[in-house]
Design goal:
This protein is of the alpha+beta class. It has helices at about 5-35, 40-55, 60-80, 85-95, 105-125, 140-145, 155-165, 205-215, 245-255, 265-270; strands spanning about 130-135, 150-155, 175-180, 180-185, 220, 230-235, 235-240, 275. It is built from ten helices and eight strands.
């Protein structure tokens, strides 16, 4: 009589463990391809599966045969199309990182990164050297990273300043930062088409607003004409933002532990002497 309950609990426990492991693997795979072109390819695969399901349900034999032929070669196609992501996954597996719990940046690490960027902005602003720095967040920016020169280097004040020195190969474009790395420089960003943007703003500022409209990225701009530092987020811009306000906002947005329960719009409206645009 005791065999059935024992078998039932044992089976249930195994199923829970099985589902948990599979779910975690799927979650890590999603994190792996997030922000890459593979996301768009996955959407295409989902559409093909939906078409196959429709052909099966409504017995559309010709279409079903065509989809079956397509799926026959899809295994090979997946390995070819997702080769960069698969290589990255194997590299992380070899380092033992793919199954580590994904934690956000530690406080001291985030502080150091922000300090390096702030120091670079201070030097660039003082010399009136134009700059455009993008902080990637949840929305992947791999498409824009690929438009520039990939660096994948540590964040440092000296490197950031040297990148934006006029007449150097990488100065005319944006720097994109992901986590603790400068992923690329000389990147092309989408220009905002907002007709209400001030006519005073040039291409660099329009690109910053456009990037903040197309993603949840935080964009910092240094004007080469005035040396003013501006901040763009969620399609809005604060021009000539004070250093204290910029540091506070970067900490708030880049360090989840310091995230306040306030809307971004209220941030822009409550800052005295700082004018929001867009």
């Amino acid at each position: 009589m005791d065999i059935v309950p024992e078998w039932t609990w044992s089976t249930t426990l195994k199923e829970i463990v099985d589902i948990t492991i599979v779910s975690y693997i799927i979650y890590k795979l999603i994190l792996l391809v997030r922000g890459t072109r593979a996301v768009q390819l996955l959407k295409g695969i989902v559409v093909l599966i939906a078409v196959w399901a429709v052909s099966y349900i409504f017995e559309l034999h010709t279409l079903q045969w065509l989809m079956n032929q397509l799926f026959t070669w899809s295994v090979v196609a997946v390995f070819i199309i997702f080769q960069p992501e698969l290589r990255r996954a194997l590299e992380q597996l070899g380092r033992g990182k793919i199954f580590t719990v994904g934690t956000n940046d530690e406080d001291h690490t985030v502080n150091e990164r922000i300090n390096q960027v702030i120091a670079a902005l201070h030097l660039l602003s003082g010399r009136r050297i134009g700059a455009l720095i993008v902080f990637e967040r949840e929305t992947g920016l791999s498409e824009y990273i690929e438009s520039g020169i990939q660096l994948e280097s540590s964040i440092s004040t000296e490197l950031l300043v040297n990148i934006f020195i006029p007449n150097t190969p990488l100065h005319d474009g944006a720097v994109i930062i992901r986590g603790g790395q400068i992923m690329a420089a000389g990147c092309y960003l989408p220009l905002s088409e907002n007709p209400f943007i001030s006519k005073e703003l040039g291409t660099r500022h329009r690109a910053a607003i456009g990037m903040s409209e197309a993603s949840d990225a935080i964009v910092v701009i240094v004007s080469e004409e005035t040396g003013q530092i501006s901040l763009a987020i969620h399609g809005q811009m604060v021009r000539d933002i004070k250093e204290e306000s910029l540091i506070a906002k970067l900490h708030e947005e880049l360090n989840p532990k310091m995230k306040k329960k306030t809307k971004d719009r209220s941030f822009f409206l409550r800052k005295k002497g700082e004018r929001p645009h867009g």
